[in-house]
Description:
Blueprint: E1 2-6, H1 16-28, E2 33-36, H2 47-56, E3 62-69, H3 76-89, E4 94-99, H4 104-110, H5 117-133, E5 146-150, H6 154-163, E6 166-168, H7 174-190, E7 198-204, H8 211-222, H9 228-237, H10 242-254, E8 259-263, H11 270-278
Helix pairs in contact: 1-2, 2-3, 3-5, 5-6, 6-7, 8-9
Amino acid sequence: MKVAIGLPNAVPGTRGEQLTEWARRAEARGFSSLGTIDRVAYPNLEPLVSLAAAAAVTERIGLATTVLLGPLRRNPVALAKQVASIHKLSGGRMTLGIGLGGREDDYEVTGVEMGSRGKELDVMLERMQEVWEGDEIGPDHGTRPRVLVGGSVKASYKRAARFGDGWIGAGAPPEQFAEWRQGFEAVWAEAGRSEAPQNAALAYYSLGDNAEADAQAYLTDYYAWLGEETAGFIANSAAKDAETAQQYAAAFESVGCQELFFFPSSSDPQQVDLLADALGM
Length: 281
């Protein structure tokens, strides 16, 4: 299993120099990819802009939206060109993880109807595939970026089998990821996809002297929309010591995860080295 790390783009207050230093350190320590979390009605940094900044200061590490909220980007051709541009400029390192999201405030502030978001994403992905395979957006942008579709219901699995190279699970315990993965792979086989599907998962961590405080401050705020109890559960479940981080990695690997993204609760670039040290990288 590959071990990836999230950029702190969704941690409020993250500065540009912290983001780029984070990317440099992540590459130096051998993480497989840099991931991003997407929101609109929240004080985060936009995922594609964040990955472009990371691409400019790195050479080898993968770049992934995990996941981008597709329906909130209304123009699929413009989005296809943005993603292809990062893929081209980075030397082919871009993965488009894409999904629906379930936060009403993100849809409200962008003026997008939530009720039809699944159908809209299908239309978007079909059009983006056409753009990548054709010549409508100008000179060759290189190979098509890898596409992973997020979601934990059958409609999402069907979308992944139709448009993607695989699937990405939302943040959940390893046993839940295993159940979702089995459901996805059954749909993948039903769709007649002969190649082995790719997958990825997410987990949270917070290490160092302020581990507990950082996890509580960030994760209870970020997930406040789910209610105090659920937000508290997520904050409490973040890996806050080396042993727990190692257990998470081993558990996800044992249930067939191919790439695990550890997302931070702090924008301090030292968190990169703390996680690498904890995992023996």
